[in-house]
């Protein structure tokens, strides 16, 4: 599901987090690492989000993935990562 609006971004991220963790979507304020994520799964998540939210160019995807990589280790909640994605939309 592509987000219809920027308000849908956290929900889509929560769904992707659930897929990476082989479970249900995360609560919008639940930390990915506290929900069972690790650094390897974080890279998988970042890759998925980069593909999902970039404009399709390799450069845009790389910029978004770089920003998400820095952000995920500061605050790994869907809401926090959505703020980073919104900056790149």
UniProtKB/TrEMBL annotation:
Annotated protein name in UniProt: Carrier domain-containing protein
The organism of origin for this protein: Nonomuraea composti
PROSITE patterns: CARRIER, PHOSPHOPANTETHEINE
Tree of life domain: Bacteria
Swiss-Prot/TrEMBL keywords: Phosphopantetheine, Phosphoprotein
Pfam name, any one: PP-binding
Domain Carrier intervals: 4-89
